[in-house]
């Protein structure tokens, strides 16, 4: 693997850059696999993975800077693991899991926060953010590219939380929500050099021009989104590029052009993350070099918007557009939801959606400003006073734990996920959740003469 010499030249002066070690680690081609567990869907971490056929156990060991992050000594087939489909973990590059440590240090996460993940697809940072914030907080997970919103929504659904709203908007649309967010994460589109080891083909797409183009785009995105950050709010900026013009120089530009202060983070020596200082503003940034730690190239920096006004955020109560449920309809859905009185229920195109009550005003504000792809948890449709439950409900953390469920073995779980016919020995009739290692996978309906498999067609495993 030949790293472009123009990239090497641009890094020579950068703190922590060791040309020889950097080139060597890229030549090594080592592939690192890491996952982050979903703390709301606990599983036994030590025994879940083994490589099919060889029965070889995959060692699972901690990512130093993230309590839920684990490296796997081998890459198992995630597609063939029902727990992956049930949202028990997310496959995520280890360096980027540092985001959690960054926000823990930069903002009080015990507070109810309005959080925006601006460049969110496929959802790695969003699932991390959702796990880190409190139940009383909300996360807007936005992706501008329409075709990428589907996978984002799917990953958010699997994660199971109700306090996430998925939107499909351009960064400048958020100017309709001035001073709205307490925390904005911009994991910006970049030239991608940090992922060369994972994806060597990306080297062919790299050029000095693309770095410059990315740098301009990053500035445009940040300038567009900053009005939506409240005074005193926190901005996290990250890239998977090594290029200073996408990293420290962006920090300099931010501090120069906007009312922002840089936030310094505390690092443990053994993490081997390099703290850099932007040349003009002296803003601190954090570089992840693959020759120094177990992870890919990554840059992250944190900023606080100055408190220029002492007035509270401008906001008004906006009337929601969605249809409310009648009390009779609420009676139908109540038994399906854990702590149902913590939610309000709306109906959109006949589908009933549960939204945490504390987000009522927020949802109305977001609805008036943005294109919402998904909010809360879809419960299903009511037909003749019965709920036909939705897949989102099955995977959610808000489902009533008393809902009928059947635990199956791996083989049956995989047949179910392939949307094949499954056989189950039970006299029960009606809607049943299928679970594997206590992780819910979806619905089946037990009838007197057959079992209907309700796994969504578009989600089914199609390889062998
Ligand atoms: N945060 C994601 C994660 O952890 O899974 C990865 C995000 S990726 C680095 C950058 C994202 O920015 C992509 O999903 C891309 O579609 C989106 N993007 C591209 N151009 C954009 C723009 N002009 N404004 C906002 N987002 C953009």
Your description of this structure?
This protein is of the alpha+beta class and 464 residues long. It folds into three domains: 227 residues, Vaccinia Virus protein VP39 (Rossmann fold, 3-Layer(aba) Sandwich); 87 residues, Nuclear Transport Factor 2, Chain: A; 61 residues, Nuclear Transport Factor 2, Chain: A, CATH 3.10.450.720. It has 13 helices and 25 strands. The strands form five sheets. Strands 7, 8, 9, 10, 11, 12, 13, 14, 15 and 19 form a ten-stranded mixed β-sheet that branches. Strands 16-17-18-20-21 form a five-stranded antiparallel β-sheet. The chain has a four-stranded antiparallel β-sheet with strand order 4-5-1-6. The longest helix is centred in the middle third of the chain and has 18 residues. It starts with a helix and ends in an 11-residue tail after the last strand. About 2% of the residues have low confidence. Bound molecules: S-adenosylmethionine.
């Amino acid at each position: 693997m030949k790293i472009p010499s123009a990239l090497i030249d641009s890094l020579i002066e950068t703190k922590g850059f060791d040309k020889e070690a950097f080139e060597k680690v890229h030549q090594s081609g080592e592939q690192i696999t890491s996952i982050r567990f979903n703390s709301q869907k606990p599983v036994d971490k030590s025994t879940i993975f083994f490589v099919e056929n060889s029965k070889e156990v995959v060692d699972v060991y901690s990512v130093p800077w993230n309590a839920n992050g684990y490296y796997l000594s081998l890459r198992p087939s995630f597609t063939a693991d029902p727990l992956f489909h049930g949202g028990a973990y997310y496959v995520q590059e280890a360096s980027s899991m540092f985001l959690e440590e960054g926000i823990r240090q930069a903002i009080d996460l015990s507070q109810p926060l309005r959080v925006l993940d601006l460049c969110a697809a496929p959802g790695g940072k969003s699932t991390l953010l959702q796990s880190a914030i409190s139940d009383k907080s909300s996360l807007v997970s936005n992706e501008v590219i329409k075709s990428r919103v589907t996978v984002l929504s799917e990953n958010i659904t699997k994660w199971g939380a109700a306090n996430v709203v998925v939107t499909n908007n351009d960064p400048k649309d958020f100017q309709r929500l001035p001073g709205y967010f307490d925390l904005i994460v911009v994991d910006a589109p970049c030239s991608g050099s940090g992922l060369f080891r994972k994806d060597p083909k990306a080297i062919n797409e790299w050029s000095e021009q693309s770095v410059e183009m990315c740098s301009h785009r990053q500035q445009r995105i940040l300038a567009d989104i900053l009005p939506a950050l409240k005074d005193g709010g926190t901005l996290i900026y990250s890239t998977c590029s090594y290029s200073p013009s996408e990293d420290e120089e962006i920090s300099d530009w931010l501090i120069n052009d906007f009312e922002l202060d840089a936030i310094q983070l505390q690092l443990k020596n053994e993490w081997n993350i390099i703290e850099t200082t932007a040349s003009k503003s002296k803003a601190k940034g954090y570089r992840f070099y693959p020759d120094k730690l177990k992870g890919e190239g990554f840059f992250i920096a944190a900023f606080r918007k100055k408190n220029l006004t002492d007035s509270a955020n401008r906001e008004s109560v906006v009337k929601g557009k969605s249809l409310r449920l009648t009390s009779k309809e609420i009676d139908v859905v109540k038994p399906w939801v854990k702590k149902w009185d913590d939610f309000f229920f709306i109906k959109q195109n006949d589908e009933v959606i549960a939204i945490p009550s504390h987000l009522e005003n927020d949802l109305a504000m977001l609805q008036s400003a943005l294109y919402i792809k998904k909010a809360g948890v879809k419960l299903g449709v009511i037909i003749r006073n019965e709920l036909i439950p939705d897949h989102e409900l099955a995977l959610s953390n808000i489902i009533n734990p008393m809902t009928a469920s059947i635990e199956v073995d791996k083989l049956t779980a995989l047949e179910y996920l392939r949307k094949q016919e499954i056989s189950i020995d039970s006299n029960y009739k009606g809607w049943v959740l299928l679970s594997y290692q206590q992780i819910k996978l979806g619905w089946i309906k037990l009838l007197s003469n057959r079992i209907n498999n309700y796994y969504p067609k578009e989600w089914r495993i199609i390889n062998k």
